[in-house]
Amino acid sequence: MKTQELLSTPEAALVSILKDMKVKELEKHGKKIAKKMGLDDYQELIRHLIKVLPQLNQEDNRFEKIKEHISALIKEEKTDIDLETQNESEKGMLDRLTIITTLLISKKLNEIKASL
């Protein structure tokens, strides 16, 4: 599946498609979406999220908190982007990047646990 197809896939179908993807394919799509949003250092994004995830409270809306962290990183890297006035396409990309990175980290951690 191409990244552009992934971005245009209805949300209801997206979850099952992403769950079936392998880690490498998730990384490929995550990198491309991050690049489209102006975030050049994808590995730094993943490192940052791995550090942040354990600090999130169970009561918090984790999806929104992770999305806020990704937005902050994008703002730091690309100062000419205004995440407050995003169009629907940009909001969709941010949502999908959040989903992909969260699922990717989860799958990587599960692989590590399985290998122990």
**What percent of residues are in strands?**
under 5%
Instruction: Determine the number of helices (DSSP H or I, runs of at least 4 residues).
Output: 6
How many strands appear in the DSSP assignment? 0
Largest sheet: none
What is the helix fraction of residues, given as a range? Answer: over 70%
Which stretches are low in confidence, meaning pLDDT under 50 for 5 or more residues running? Answer: none
- Termini separation comes to 32 Å
Element string (H = helix, E = strand): HHHHHH
Mean pLDDT: 86
Overall form = globular
- By secondary-structure content and strand pairing, the structural class works out as mainly alpha
Rg, rounded, reads 14 Å
What does this structure look like?
Helices cover 73% and strands 0% of the residues. The chain is mainly alpha-helical and 116 residues long. α3 packs antiparallel against α6, α4 runs antiparallel to α5 and α5 crosses α6. The termini are far apart. The model has no long low-confidence stretch (mean pLDDT 86).
What structural keywords apply?
mainly alpha; 73% helix
Structure summary:
With 116 residues, the protein is an all-alpha fold. The protein contains six helices and no strands.
Write the layout of secondary structure elements.
Layout: H1 3-8, H2 11-20, H3 23-36, H4 42-52, H5 62-77, H6 88-115
Helix pairs in contact: 3-6, 4-5, 5-6
